[in-house]
Amino acid sequence: MPVRQPLLSVADALTRILAGVAPLPAQTVPLSEAHGRVLASPLKALRTQPPFAASAMDGYAVLHADLQGVGTVLNKVGEAAAGHAYIGSVGSGDCVRIFTGAPLPQGTDTVLIQEDAETDGGSGVTVSEVPDKGRYVRPAGLDFAEGDTLLEANRVLSAADVSLAAAMDHAALPVRRKPIVALISTGDELVPPGTPRRADQIVTSNNFGVAALVEEAGGFALDLGIAADTHAALADAFDRAENADIVITLGGASVGDHDLVQDALTARGVGLGFWKLAMRPGKPVMFGTGTTTGNETANEGQPKRYLGLPGNPVSSLVCTHIFVLPLLRALLGQPAATVLQDAVLAVDVPQNDQREEYMRASLELRDGALHITPFARQDSSILSGMAKADCLMVRPAHSPPMRAGDPCKIVPLRG
After folding, report:
1. pLDDT tens readout for residues 335-360
2. What pairing do the DSSP bridges indicate for beta strands 26-30 and 110-113?
3. Can you give the three-state secondary structure of the chain, one letter per residue?
4. Residue 2 reports pLDDT greater than 50
5. Calpha distance 272→266 (Å, rounded)
6. Hey, how many other C-beta atoms are within 10 angstroms of the C-beta on 286?
7. CA-to-CA distance for 159 and 176, rounded, in angstroms?
8. In what order do the strands lie in the sheet with 117-119?
9. What's the confidence (pLDDT) of residue 403?
């Protein structure tokens, strides 16, 4: 009787998936398309901000030495507004009416705000309160100077980052190319939502959730639809995934008579690294590598990676969090490891078997700590529970019984 081989651990599986992964090449995109993308190289300022000493308030530009105390009368000789600098001369005892953002005229060093000045209706301006020297002036370079590195590589560009890049005078940015992730749903039992179906068919749902997670992580999801349970249909789907960096099949990765994905991949020369894991949900997970994509923008020397995820919707979503998202982060030049958070159990949990388990759970902040309550029903087909879950509680293989109040680790599912 053959000896049953031990199932591969989640950690070992992830190590194999990430082996040899290098960041994808850079591409340049317009600034308007850069939000949410990963910056490929450090970004230096092309200009100084502000490029000149500017007024921070509406008032009068003055030379502080001319202010001899309350009651000093100055002579207004002109006006400066944002985009309209005063280019005349400012002599002793003169001042210039100035508005917020306007360049400070040469020969002045302070702004007398309008609340601290009185006018006679003509050119006379009387000081009612003396400001400190340099008050209400934003010096040139207050924010940054030309040549300063303000954004580091591998940063996901936020709205503030994009604004900063614009202020740095960048009209386009170098970002990592989005990993292309092809999704292939498999099975004669599947039909798209909203279409007629037989009594023995179900609506496909995995692809929508996996695609959403891929897009949220910075990838480009290419949904290739449903492949029937035939070698020809699978071959056609894999052909259409030629330009993808990652190919994900949903369902069909087990070893039943109608699970044809392994055979179809082997026929294409894909080397299978594993196809069963010590994981719940997600035991029938498959991974392999194939030839480099024919896409001219593909990362040179990077093999195409194939992941076969379970057909149960919860299993496919959990496996996407644990395997696909780290792979996407690695391709985008970011730290790949899933960051686990500390939490406290709110209820008792029985002992675990030989498979690492990811339990859907609700989360509540109490007394400064995150308390979690795993759902009573953990069946991998219950998609409504996954939608309600705040996190996944990670239970190591062979974990003993746990009690309310015990510490645990979680994978957050919500931002």
Report:
1. 999 989 999 999 999 999 999 999 99
2. unpaired
3. CCCCCCCECHHHHHHHHHCCCCCCCEEEEEHHHCCCCEECCCEECCCCECCCCEECCCEEEECHHHCCCCCCEEEEEEEEECCECCCCCCCCCEEEEECCCCECCCCCCEEEEHHHEEECCCCEEEECCCCCCCCCEECCCCCECCCCEEECCCCECCHHHHHHHHHCCCCEEEEECCCEEEEEEECCCEECCCCCCCCCCEECCHHHHHHHHHHHCCCEEEEEEEECCCHHHHHHHHHHCCCCCEEEEECCCCCCCCCCHHHHHHHCCCEEEECCECEECCCCCEEEEECCCCCCCCCCCCCEEEEEECCCHHHHHHHHHHHHHHHHHHHCCCCCCCCCEEEEECCCECCCCCCEEEEEEEEEEECCEEEEEECCCCCCCCHHHHHHCCEEEEECCCCCCECCCCEEEEEECCC
4. no
5. 8
6. 24
7. 17
8. 110-113, 59-62, 94-98, 73-80, 124-127, 117-119
9. 97
Residues in the chain: 415
C-alpha dist (Å) from residue 76 to 17, 107, 111, 116: 72, 14, 13, 15
